[in-house]
Design goal:
Elements: H1 3-26, H2 41-55, H3 67-77, H4 79-96, H5 102-114, H6 120-137, H7 143-156, H8 164-173
């Protein structure tokens, strides 16, 4: 595995630990960033299964740890939790691809269009609509919105200075 792949994997592990820790502190049941309707689950699961090899190092993907296999095992027992997990995973993929050059995004969009799946650009737009709605409202209502804004801050860097007060206010009220 390359140094960049290893770094990305460890960042993913740290990110997931932070989410779990915050979720436990708040007693939240779900911290999904993107809500997945049961009618769209299969299509977005397929989208995610095509994205996994693009963002995760192949040497870390085993039959037991492959994110889609984990998702499928979860779906057998609790479909609602699988939808929540898929929403969180898609949000993470959006974050992981935020530094992709436009040419790579366009190639990915073209590939996904040919499969009849949502493009990466479409998924990013769906994610950003949530952020825009929170900014217009001026406050965060839920953990879902909190994590969406946090992802946006991490993607946008200095351009997201106006989002920090919303995040701070939500954390203070919890």
């Amino acid at each position: 595995m390359s140094a960049i792949g290893r770094e990305r994997f460890f960042l993913l592990a740290i990110w997931m630990f932070e989410r779990l820790t915050l979720r436990q502190r708040r007693g939240a049941v779900s911290i999904t960033v993107m809500r997945i309707d049961p009618t769209e689950y299969a299509r977005l699961r397929s989208w995610f299964s095509h994205m996994v090899p693009k963002v995760f190092p192949s040497d870390l993907l085993t039959p037991d740890t492959h994110p889609v296999a984990v998702l499928d095992r979860m779906a057998v027992k609790t479909p609602a939790k699988a939808r929540s997990g898929l929403g969180m995973a898609i949000s993470d993929v959006v974050e992981f691809t935020s530094d992709w050059p436009a040419t790579k995004v366009a190639a990915c969009d073209n590939e996904f269009s040919q499969f009849g799946l949502p493009t990466l650009s479409e998924v990013r737009a769906r994610f950003s609509k949530l952020v825009q709605r929170v900014v217009r409202r001026g406050h965060i209502k839920s953990d879902d919105e909190f994590y969406a804004l946090r992802n946006a801050v991490e993607q946008q860097g200095a351009d997201a200075v106006s989002l920090w007060p919303l995040l701070d206010a939500y954390e203070a009220q919890s």
